[in-house]
Amino acid sequence: MTAAKISLNELYTIMNANMGPQTWLQPGTDWAESPWEVIYGAILVQNTNWQNVAPSLLKLKAKTNFDPQKVEHLSLAELTELIRTSGFYTRKTQTIFNVCHWLEKYQFDLAQLKQRSQTALRQELISLKGIGNETADYILMYVLDKPNFMVDAYSRRLFSWLGCQLPSDYLQAQALIEKQVSFDLKKWQDFHALIVNYGKTVKGKKAFTQSFLGKYQNRLKLNK
User: Closest by alpha carbon to 153, among 175, 173, 180?
Assistant: First the structure.
């Protein structure tokens, strides 16, 4: 049986139909209490898993209620101790401080930040030591309402199973995907959450072939 060729729009539709709308990091859900928590989580989850991040966030909340002005005024030792379970805590401590100092330039006013262009915000975030492409895009999309396609390990693995080896360069891979569809912010957020939640369940090629996407393997069509 010949596998069906599908576009990116069709991929989203199929995943949404089988998994339903995702509430990940959406306002009014229990995924995140505040945009500040999303920012800290984006930094702390680097090179670790969420199970290690959760205790750090609980301690950070108890100490500061996630208020970036309070976080900024913690001592290096205090913040390091709070996030120790997330690993790489020396680097992550400094990254959190770097982001808080950046936010201070805008009076910690997210509404003011959202008025700036996506390009300008991305450049400023990337310039902060400890913030890479993936973390910057995570903050842009889930905190500052700037839509994008996040090229993470889950998306690379899924697209590989579907027969599309994304370029190793992050920005090239992102551009390849983004030029195929014109999703709005909510749809990009949902697409990323679908890919991540799918990847947390489907962890190998055999599981993929047995999943609802298996009949599309090696047949994903990216119209150029």
Answer: 173
| pLDDT tens profile 122-173 | 999 999 999 999 999 999 999 999 999 999 999 999 999 998 889 999 999 9
Torsion of CA 137, 94, 76, 97, to 10 degrees: -50
Phi/psi of residue 87, nearest 5 degrees: 75, 165
| pLDDT 10s digits, 24-70 | 766 555 556 789 999 999 999 999 998 999 999 999 999 999 999 99
Torsion (CA) 52, 54, 56, 61 in degrees, nearest 10: 180
CB 64 within 8 A of CB 40: no
Question: Closest Cα partner for 195 from 165, 142, 159, 145?
Answer: 159
Does the model's pTM come out above 0.85? yes
Question: Could you tell me which of 26, 61, 13 has the C-alpha nearest to residue 141?
Answer: 26
DSSP, res 165: -
Write the burial class of residue 28 (CB in 10 Å: 0-12 exposed, 13-18 middle, 19+ buried): exposed
- Is residue 82 a contact partner of residue 53, using CB atoms and an 8 Å limit? no
The CA distance from 2 to 98, in Å, is 52
